[in-house]
Structure formats: C-alpha cells, structure tokens
Structure prediction request, 260 residues.
Amino acid sequence: MPTIPDINATILKPLLHTAFIGRTLVSEFELASTNITANELAAANAPEGLVVIADHQSAGRGRNGRSWLSPHAQNLYFSILLRPSCPPAAVPQLSILTALSITKAIALPGIAVKWPNDVWLNGRKLCGILSAMSCMANQTEYAIIGIGINVNMREFPEDIPGTSLARETDREFSRAEVLSSVLNAIEEDYSLWKHNQTLAPFMERWASCSLLDGRSITAEHGRTTLQGTACGITPDGLLKLNCPDGVIRLIAAGDTHIIL
Ligand code: BTN
Prediction:
C-alpha cells in the first residue's frame, strides 16, 4: 500500500500564481479530516494561506453533522487557513465567496452556486464547503475553509445527488490542475474581499450563476422551514426569500432545497 501522497509541493507549486495560498502545503496520504488537521496547525500559529490536503479522509465531515465521501485519490479534499482581520459575523461570507471562486476556476457550462456554499454542475452537487472559525472577543483569529470537490469519482450512492467533473464530461481530470486553478481563483477573490469585507463587488457574479434565484425553494434551519421564492443574496451573504405573505425574509444559515 503506497503511503506517499499523489499531490506534493513539487507538482503543485509550478501551477500556482498565488502569493500566499498554497505556499505552505501539508499533503498527506490519509487524514481523518483535513479540517481537523488545519485547525490544529492554525492553533499552533501556521501562516495564512496554509493548505492541508489528503488523498483520502477516514472521517471526512460534511455540513450539519453529515459525513463526506472521500474515496482514495479520486477527488480533492483540502482545507485553507485564512486569517482575515474582520468581525466573526463576516466570516460566513468567505464560504460564499469560495463557492464563487470555484465556479470561476472550473468554468464549465452548467456550473452554478447553490446558497449557502455548494457548487453544482448540471443540476447535481459537485462540491461542498465546510468552514470553521476561531475568534477572540469580537475579532476573528482564523477561519478554516474545508473544500471537497468531486473530480474523477464516477459512481455515487443512489441517495446522494452528487456528480463529478469526470462524470459530467466523460474525461479524467488532473487533480493538481483543478486544485491549483481553484487556489489561484480563491486568492484573487479573497484579496479583493478583504479590503472592504463585503460581497458587494461579487453580487453580479453571484446572480449570473445562482441555481436558486427565481426558484421556489424551502430553507431549513434547525426546526424552522421557510418556503418562498429565492431572490438573491444581500452583500453580507444572507439569502433573500420572497415568502407567500409578500415579505422578503433574510436567511442567515441553513439547507436549501428546490421544490420541483
Ligand atoms: C458539505 O456537506 O457540503 C460540506 C462538505 C465539505 C467536505 C470537505 S472535504 C475537505 C474538508 N475536510 C472535511 O472533513 N470536510 C471538508
């Protein structure tokens, strides 16, 4: 059984155009979850831009306590450490921004963002993002952006409406090339975002690739489920839901589902 990871600094660095994202790289054959390792390294003062990647995760985590399928070396499982100097309330914007950066990097027809931070391709989920943060008083110490992108996996369990780049295009992709394009796009967008810490400069891009806008959806958060028509997001990343009583409600977090 090989224990050397497929992606390493020698392969990745020539593909990067970044100043800091991916310049510190921890690449492992197997980790429980790249988010856990990135969090440990962040707490031990790792620099902004650290990327932790694993060929396989034995306990990959998804949103809302779900697990994340992480078969060996088929997809990308990685986490990025950011140290934005912003209030903790602004950090969820980073996941939304990351979803947008991924659509820019992948740039295939049929690519879309699904609020809050999924990337879908041709109506199925391609990528999930799970972020975490550490804060002190009202200041953010760091944020971990954990990203899973289905790259070359072709078979999905029936109960998972997932897809991959290979499944949609019928060709294999270089995981290192996909990773580097995504890291390049994230650094470009994050560098713009961190000047004013708002999604305002990205609103047009969001509208141009939003899966939910104009659709009838449900938004679930905890025990609350709201129904309405999605009508965009606010510059601070809240979902705007036009409810049957005519009121536009702002949703801060939750799972969304299209009503077919
Ligand atoms: C979701 O449920 O949509 C979020 C999935 C996030 C998966 C990624 S894979 C890399 C990082 N490590 C994890 O354990 N989860 C995230």
About this structure: The two ends are 46 Å apart (CA to CA). The chain has a mean pLDDT of 96.
